[in-house]
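Homework help board

Subject: predicted structure for assignment chain

Our instructor gave us this sequence and asked us to write out the predicted structure in C-alpha cell form, then describe one feature. I got the C-alpha cells but I'm not sure how to describe them. Can anyone check?
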Amino acid sequence: MIITLSPQDSSVDTTISIDGQVLTYNGADMDFSGVTLDGEVEGEDPVIGLIKNINGVIHVSILYPYNRLTSDAMQSINPDDYIFNVTSGEVPSPIQLK
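My C-alpha cell output:
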C-alpha cells in the first residue's frame, strides 16, 4: 500500500498500521480489498480524495494529525517525506519530535 500522509497540527497523536489491504487508523479498520484492479473509489474521512488500486497496489492519502506539544515546530516541507510503501506493520511517523 502506498500511503501519503497529510500532516495536521493537533493535540493528539495518530497511529496507522497496515495488514495487506486493511489500513487501521487509530484502532478503526478500513478494508480496501473491494477496490477493483485499476479502479478507484471516493474515500471517507480520514481518507482524502480517491482510493486507487494501481496494478494491484492500493494508493491512499490520509489525514495525519500529530501532537504539537511533543513535536518540533518546524516539520519537513518535502512531500516525499510523507509517502510510505508499507505492506505490513506500522506506518512510520514522519513527524520530528522535540
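Reply (TA_rk): Your C-alpha cells look well-formed. For the description, you could write something like this. The radius of gyration is 13 Å. That's the kind of observation they're looking for.
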